[in-house]
Sequence to fold (444 residues):
Amino acid sequence: MRYVSHLSVAATFLSMAILFGGGGSPAPLAELIVELTALATFCVWILLPAPSRIEVPHDHMLWICVAVAAAVPVLQLLPLPPMLWHILPGREVERATLDLIGKGDSWRPLSLAPYQTFASALSLIPPMVMIYFTSQLTLIQRTKILPWVAGLAILSALIGVVQVASGDADWPRFYQHSNRGLATGFQDNRNSTADILVIGILALVAYVAIDRRTVKAAWGKAVVAGLIALMMFTTILTGSRAGTTLLLMCPLMTIALFRPRLHLSRKMAAGAVGLLLVLSGTFSLLRDNAALDRTWHRFNNIADARPMIWADTSYAIGLYWPIGSGVGTFTTIFPAAERLEAVDASITNRAHEDYLEFALEAGIFGSVLLIILAAALVSRGIYVLRFGGEAQVAHAILAISVVAALALHSLVDYPIRSMSLAVITAYAIGLLSTPPKKAGSQPG
Fold:
């Protein structure tokens, strides 16, 4: 353990999560690798010298909410007596089926698909481990994670450019069901890749705001600007409408980070206008590019199957409300609620509106808990913004921006269902925690 530090353990695990956690439930082996890595790195972590921490009551509500949220699928697996689960909404078919084999009076869990709920419970191990790691890192160490996030996003961008440039060869692809012909990086779909690229930009900007030496020299500014442009360009190549729209979070967070130091001289104003002109000219020159045209075309054709899926999901929610059907049971429950006119050869694997899907699976308890967790995050974020130091405030702005971006994307998709994005979100939440008391209490 001589050459191993808490920082290296956290950075290694985060890297593994981004590289292998983008396949979702159709890639169980890749997710298993991330889960085993989480357990392995946690074991290494606890063998290292324990960091000293200061206990502050402002953290407690946040951690209680996170712990209870993680407990939801576990509680749904507890066996219930027949007199209790018989009266739960939506259990008529299950009871009638079990009666046929003489097991109608057996004890059953709340979840209608226990194996899927168990898999969902296991999938929470990586983000919970990442939250713990981040909460134990010092401010300096947390800042050193930012280049890792940005670097992995840049690597994803480079892979995405190669994927699009390879044309019909469509190489390299890491998942069988990946979006062909589009930039997907290490993820199985364009939306997750777009989110990682946007978060990579946010992380790079936050790092520059904290460590000003990065852009002290002119070449440093040029490199940072070039890397941001690469990630923005590749975000468009993903063909993700939501991801492209979320690029607007980047200038908003930049203004929030640099607001205390903004003194707009004529030179800076001219530079900003010049940058906008360059970007506009670049996009004008590339407007006939086939890869980019796919993204613009998707904005012009926003009608898709989502509204029908949402309507059928809402109907399913009514069948199992207020208890829910169990976390991870969407694919088991949805086919019975899908309208015949919407049925085709494709399989609807998600509700494409994570709040609706969570309401179906976790019921009123999970929905209320989600609201409480959001309130706890906002409360903690406001507290850090008011009373934190410069680096802590920058971390809070980044955390709020990341969570807000993914929360908005969840209105039309399911970003947190990607283990890669779940771990990144966990890192963002961990940034809001109180850091160790002494900056030198841990090895770097």
Notes: The chain has one domain: 6-72+119-259+266-302+354-430. Residues 6-72+119-259+266-302+354-430 form one domain. DSSP finds 19 helices and two strands in the chain. The CA atoms of residues 82 and 105 lie 5 Å apart.
